[in-house]
């Protein structure tokens, strides 16, 4: 497995103003030779270039405030550098790439089974591209570069791509290079996560106007729009209603599950894994009835505050170009501009009229705030998790570059 090399990865703070250009030279860290034709791009954007024969490059940042600069070349470890951009000062970087060590392999403690595309390909595409109108107009061109590992003991599926995935998105009008860093499905918790480094290019500059409506539809109610709206304190104007949400877990159901689990484990320890009836281990009829009653109950109940929040209620610090946000428990976010799509309702067997789109955010670590930027970027990215409608909607088929803005915002 390729080793991810983050050489001199740090936040660069410039002294004033917004930089327009990043310039630099790419060299080999071992012999200091220049590296031509290296790929240089800003992650999750349309902004990319290649190094010249002399190893030099120049890249326009187009007003982005926080970027991940990515440099890659065949035979070298990937280079990633986070940069905070301020005003009127171009950056000049000297970037050194380290050669890959082909002998280094990923150490796997848990044994796994190699699986093929025939078994897991459809599942992968449903997660990666989504299950919606947009996904039907997307195609991954190099699926042969994807391999799967299934860890039977922990019931996990891992997908590995030996080359960046090439995605044609004919719904939003982009060609996408997606360097898959991680893809894991945990079937115990029914949670799937994936991440990667992304470069967008227009399919055709002459025809991109025909994708305007689809791009605006993908943007409306999205997580990016919400974070931009939080930065500008314009939830109401942008159609967002936000409340606090508390999740009360069913402690009694969990207690009964653990009690029966202990009975089962003790039985197996004494008699082995022969067929047996769980009810016979419990014994008491009233207890059996109570156990089955609790088993049918929900694992938790969501309780909502009756009061709407304002952006100021979660913004805890303001800097000239950033804001810090923090909240306890969960945010319950309703987008009043967009309703649930038919594909979403079919996927989850919802038989009612479509509601407004409803999503949730929570912070992984307590007392660790999120820093947000006006373009919708935020850090640390692993600290904030979304679920609800965004879990279904936010995927590669509806993903927009960070330098995208709807037409109305550009006027």
Automatic annotation (TrEMBL):
Protein name: Carboxypeptidase-like regulatory domain-containing protein
UniProt cross-references to InterPro entries, sorted A to Z: CarboxyPept-like_regulatory (IPR008969)
Entries under Pfam families matching the protein: CarbopepD_reg_2
Annotated source species: Polluticaenibacter yanchengensis
